[in-house]
Amino acid sequence: MATEGTKENPWKLKTPPLTSEYEMYKALKDDKEVIMCVVGKTTLMYDARCLNDLHEMLKAHGDWMELGSADEQKPAKEGTVEAWGRSEQNPNGGWYGLKKGLRGRFGMYIPPLMEHLGLAEVTHDAKGNKMRAI
What we know:
Elements: E1 11-14, E2 21-29, E3 32-39, E4 42-47, H1 50-61, E5 65-66, H2 81-84, H3 106-116, E6 120-122, E7 130-133
Antiparallel strand pairs: 1-2, 2-3, 3-4, 5-7, 6-7
């Protein structure tokens, strides 16, 4: 069987409220490791270092953190995973989302992957989901 997390064998995930399915896989783009996120006919792209960086930040945070998912064009609620994923103070110096116009939703799509990989716990309520490092 092919290694999980490839284009041929993507991770099959659900959004935190468990209402929508999507797929993710690692790829190389311009010699940079990225995470491709396929939601229906839309493909988003995130810098793969976000997994380690977010895990480290959550460990330092030490408690549950609200996800706060938002589209790129909308402001992210302060103190959320989404806000951190856009912040100039994160290790990336800004957006982990790499596809202009589709850089948001970091707090929707990355946490379930981290949960799947055993790096974090994620709540699965209808709204207001949170995550914390394992």
